[in-house]
Amino acid sequence: MEIRCPLPVRMLLARTHFARRGLTSLAGASGRALCTARVPRPGGPMASSAGLALRGQTLVVRGGSRFLAISTASSDDDCIFTYDCSAAEKKSAPEDKGEDGQPVDKGSDTILASTFSKSGSYFALTDDSKRLILFRTKPWQCLSVRTVVRRCTALTFTASEERVLVADKSGDVYSFSVLEPDGCGSPDDQFVLTADRDEKIRVSWVAAPHSIEAFCLGHTDLGLMDEGGSGLWWPLDGTLRLWEYRSGRQLQCYDLASLQDPAEHQGHKGLAASRIAFWEQESCVVLLCECVPVVFIFQLDASRQQLGFRQKLTFPHRVWDVVFEETQGLWVLQDCRDTPLVLWRPVGGQWQAVPEGAVSQRLCSHLRASWAMLEGSVGADDGFRSLYKATFDNMTSYLKKKEERLQQQLKKKKRQRSPLPASPEQTKKACPGQSALSC
């Protein structure tokens, strides 16, 4: 196993390079069980999908380069906050060039990941232009725009809210101070959990990131983690797994395909888990599948350390994202302009859609007015394609070049064996007697 050497400890105070292992997700941890899952392996360019983030009664809906922050409080006025990353400051630098000497694509301003801090006081996002943008939420204000080394796919705040951990898909994890450049972390944030494209989860000490406490092994594909740092985890191999992550022991495993009827996922290579959320009030785990309008509901029994399957929710439209509001239920963002947001709650042991009330009408009205923000996600493919290991079939091009080389060698040999036709002057010199008679 290869691990990049850690930087000096003083670098942990501002911007820390944790590890390089093809990382796809990360989360802070202090003592919860870990829940993971997996999906099939596609390929192709990275796509961006619409997403949700919620803390307290502040709901953020993002799409493309913009996000919209709305209050879910019934008594709140129509006060919203919007932000467009294309208007954020960009670092002026000389034109970067790749190994071939061609200019490197600077990327779009599309938001790739976003999250709230634990108290909801801060909100952070990363975009395709390699920026980390930090906001204060009470009131909303952009605090800083910082440049990251690579495009980042995951981020989370520490429990102390003094640092934000940012990870890119190549496996580098950096720690940024929220406010003070030289601030240090709280000892309550013991571990950082990282997932990579080598099918394993690492549990590392935050204070000494090169020291790995445990591995959670068993998945057969890359994995992703709840960006809120709740300790919930889903890999991309069609399974949902519960771990005791401190020791790396697997407690339970669900095959998601077994929860579906065979006819329900025809035309799909497998169930790709794209989002997981945990409702602490009801101990519910919700798993959303990519490109399939299905949401799985599980019940977590913490005392027995067991997950129980409860219900499968199906939708007439593609579901982009899900998020829990502690006092309300499950908000579902779907590809439907008429009803982009739907609220679900458990009623009598069964999850049901809540009839549209004043809050839902107000939120849907705002989203319909800002539908251009979400149009880029309509019909978009799997948003995690770029995280998968790419396989290259170079045999076709190799055999083609080999055939061309053999043909060239064959033609060269033929030219060497057959003499060139003689010129008329050479013919006259070869036959002097014939020339004399003609005179």
TrEMBL record:
Statement: the UniProt record of this protein carries the keyword Cell inner membrane: no
Please give the GO cellular component terms listed in this UniProt entry: cytosol; nucleoplasm; tRNA (m7G46) methyltransferase complex
Question: SUPFAM superfamilies from the entry?
Answer: WD40 repeat-like (SSF50978)
Question: Which BP terms does GO give this entry?
Answer: DNA damage response; tRNA (guanine-N7)-methylation; tRNA stabilization
**Subcellular location per the Swiss-Prot or TrEMBL entry:** Nucleus
The UniProt annotation puts the region (Disordered) at 407-439
Which keywords belong to this entry? Acetylation, Chromosome, DNA damage, Nucleus, Repeat, tRNA processing, WD repeat
A single GO molecular function term of this UniProt record: tRNA methyltransferase activator activity
Name its pathway: tRNA modification; N(7)-methylguanine-tRNA biosynthesis
What this chain does, per the entry, is described as: Required for the formation of N(7)-methylguanine at position 46 (m7G46) in tRNA. In the complex, it is required to stabilize and induce conformational changes of the catalytic subunit.
Task: Give the family from UniProt.
Answer: Belongs to the WD repeat TRM82 family.
Put simply, this protein is called: WD repeat domain 4
* Species, as recorded: Peromyscus maniculatus bairdii (Prairie deer mouse)
